[in-house]
Every structure is written in structure tokens, then in C-alpha cells.
Amino acid sequence: MIGNFLKGARGPKGNDSRYLLDVHRRDLPGKDTMRRYPESDEVDLLIVGAGAGGSVLAQRLARKGWRIVILEAGPFWHPDEDWVSDEAGSHRLYWNQKRIIGGADPISLGKNNSGRGVGGSMVHYAGYTPRFHPSDFETLTRDGVGADWPIPYGELKPHYEELERELPVAGQNWPWGDPHSYPFSPHPVSGAAQVLWRGAIEMGIEMRAGPVGIVNGTFGNRPHCIYRGYCLQGCKVNAKASPYVTHLPDALAHGVEIRADSMAVRVELDDAGKAIGVTYVREGEALERFQRAAVVAVCGYSIETPRLLLNSTSPRFPNGLGNNQDQVGRYVMVQGASQSAGRFPDEQRMYKAPPPEVSSEQFYETDEDRGFARGFSIQTISPLPIGWAEHVIAAGHIGRALREYMRDYNHWTTIGVLNELLPQPDNRVTLAEEKDAHGMPVAHFAHSRCENDKANMEYSKKILASILQAAGAQDTLTIERYAHLIGGARMGTGPENSVVDSDQRVWEVENLLIADGSVCPTQGSANPALTIMALSSRVASRLAAKRISTGASMEMAR
What we know:
By secondary structure, the chain is α+β, with helices and mostly antiparallel strands. Helices cover 23% and strands 19% of the residues. The strands form 3 sheets. Strands 1, 2, 5, 6, 7, 8, 18 and 19 form an 8-stranded mixed beta sheet that branches. Strands 4, 9, 10, 11, 12, 13, 16 and 17 form an 8-stranded antiparallel beta sheet that branches. The chain has a 3-stranded mixed beta sheet with strand order 3-15-14, with helices on one face.
């Protein structure tokens, strides 16, 4: 009972980001006064990527006295100037640089699975922040599919809990996986989401409000969500959690330097096989630069991390860094993300709330009666008009029919799934012959579904249809799509089956770490942001406690 009264009152002890934000402006506090390190200076830690993984790693270790530089390919954002309440105007938040796709089921890369700029893809994620389940860490043992992680759920649990306080996460008490509560009470549920929730109840499907990394109330200098519905276009009021507001302000206050517009092209090794720094190129320059470091952490996510490793060749690693066993770039996973929209007699106005509202993990675990392994989650979503047009076109309607569906937008509401698709070695990132403006080979990503994936996605679409029918929908439009990325440099028990060990060190290079979603051996049916942050928090705590050997000699708190 006391815990209910304290909801929203308990903040994290080791992170002051919420107080460092300026209530009168939205740009990143400390950017103009941050510490600058000479390139000739060997910093303690050089991080590639200022997203979910890299930002948490930097914030945690900066508080322990580590001297840290982050290289970020994209720009610093100024929310007041760069983030707009417009879908088309938000296009540059995404990683729009060329990538080549292939396979039997090619994946569109961009706005729904990768970001470019300080804060990473969490700048434009919807806000859902569920945990992975304990079963996700041992799918091979439990269900005979996928892979077991070399660490158990229990090692991430305290980091999940701390991050849920830092973001903070709002939601009802969670009954699935490892049952738990959240630090903030759930947000009010819109009328459109209530219609879908009633349909789920009619079908015997249990749902809960949340979990979302969106402030419900005030949190330091972060305001309450104003329910403007533009979470996917960058939160202009700083209510939605992203590293930009949750970890980077505190990181800068503790001496971290972020070098924006700096594209990493190679991780360099010395003759002994030790990482010594990263070669990078500044936007608009042709000259290569080099930053020395005692420890390097690559945090570029599931396409750019393998790409950087594969491009970092040397006599010791002629096929790419950490790739002597041909594991780099393999086992990249996405989630099936089919959506079903229903038309109702009354106006729904699904845009009048954050896209994430209520969700269910009732179908998350394996049920042999379904005919496939693993499962899926269900989430309400709220496409804005351009997203709605894409949905209608994907359902086969163009011309006059498209215009009529667009005119009818306010009568529709949408629900979707996240299917766990299984890791497969040939779903992988490789380097294409074509090169980008920096002379770096373009990434090629091949993806195909297995039969288990197809069965999972087909079954989940039937569940969505049953919910809409029970809710009283007059018409429905269902499309198949994909979301999120995981894998490509997975952790495991040896170089023959993975790229990094349980401490996320690249095999044979103990002072090179990977701290992003590419290390995950399985995907789960949960949005991956919170787990990526938790993995980095765990690695940081182990580094700070000297429980991970990097072979580096560093003098702290200089």
C-alpha cells in the first residue's frame, strides 16, 4: 500500500539528468561547455554511437571518473528547432544513408528500426519499454529453438529496475514474465484504445496500460506528457524518455565529450592485437582523424556495428575484426509487426494520445497447441496520416479508394503485434561492393523467414482480427510489416558460435566491447530499448567494479 502512495516520488540516486534539463529550452544541457579531449590524448573509453547502449555506458562510467569520448555519426539535435509536429519533416531523424537489402523477406530499413543523431533511435521510438522475459534467456533449453544467453535474466533484473526509475516507466502492475510494478502510475487511456481493450476482454485476452517511458506527472525538470501524439517524431516537451534527456545530460556534467557528425570507419589494433582507438571522418571533411583510447566500445546497433567490424581488417583479422570464425553480422533478427486497423461508427481520433497505450503479453510464451515455438505481444498503436496512408496502400488501396480511406481517418483505430522471429545464421549483414561518401562499403542485409516465423505471424493476425471483430469494427485492414533490430554480433560461449563473451568483449580483443542490441542472442516479443540499456548498465557496473579484464591501464579522476 505504501508503495502505491510513493509512485512517482522515488527517483534514481545516481543520475541527475532530470534536474539538469532547462525548463525554458529543450536543447541538450552542457553541450556548449562540455569537456574537449585532444585526439592525441589516450582517453579511458571511446564509444561509437550515442544511442541507448552507448549513452548509458558513458553516463555510468563517467560517474566513476572515466575519461570518455563518444563518436556519433549524426548531429546534435535542438528539439525546439529540429523536431517538428510533422511526419515528413521528421525524416532526418532516421538512418537514411544507403543500405542494400535482400533475402526472401527483405526488411525496409529506416524509420522503424534505426536512428541517426545524438540520442539514437530512441529519439523516435514509440515509448514502449517492456522487459524481456526470463524465458528469452534460455529458449533453446526450454523450447528447443533459438539460443541460450550466457547470462540469466537475474543478472539484468536490478538494471531493469534502476532504468525503470531513470526513464521513468509508467504502467499498471505487470503480471507476465517476471511480475513487477512500475515507478509511475499508468497514463489515462484514450477512447480509441478503450474500444480495443474491450474487444480483447470479450476474447478473454488480458491487457494492461503501459509500460511506457513517458512521464506521468512531473519528473525533475521534465514535464507531464501533453498527449500530442508525435512520439515517433521526437518529443518536443521532453516527456518521453530517450538518452537525450535521461542519460546524456548527466554524462556531459561528468566530463563526457560527444563528437557529433563523426562517422567511425575503422577500429584500429596494435601489433599485439589490442584495440588502440578508432579512425573516423567528420561530416563535410575528407581527412581521416584518429582518437586514441585504452578501451573501445562499439554501440552502433545491428547494422552499423557489424559493418564497422567487417570493415576493420588487419593481418590478425583479415575478414573483419572478431570475424575469424565467420560470426560477425550473422543472426540478425527483426520482429514481425503486423497491424490491423478497424473502422468504427463513432470517431476514434487515434492520434489524440501517445501511440503506445495498452498491451498484452498473454501470447508471449510457447504454447504447443498453436503449432509453433515462442509467441508474440499485442500493442495498441496510432499511425498518423502519412503512416495511415502507408497502411492503406500496403493493404492494396490506391487512387480514389486511398482518398476515401484518408477522409475517413478519424473513424479508424489500430492494433498490432510483435512476433518473436527466430535467429538464423543466414540472416546477416555483409559488405557490398558499393561504397559510401567516406569510402566505406555499404551494408547489405539479407533476411528470410523460417516456417516457424511464418506460422507465428499468421496466427497472430487471426488474434488481431478476433479483437477487432469483438470490438464491433465495421471494416478492417490488415498488413504485414516488421520492426526493430537485434543481433549481428551476439554473445555466446565461444568464437565458434558468437562474436562477444558474456561480458560483451570481442573474442581475442579483450579491450574491445560491444554494448548495443547486436549482442542479443534472441529477440523476444518485447520492444528491445530497455534491454539494450540494461545490458550496457550491467557491463558498466562490472567494468567499474573491475570484474571485467580489459588489459588496459587507466588513471581515474584526473
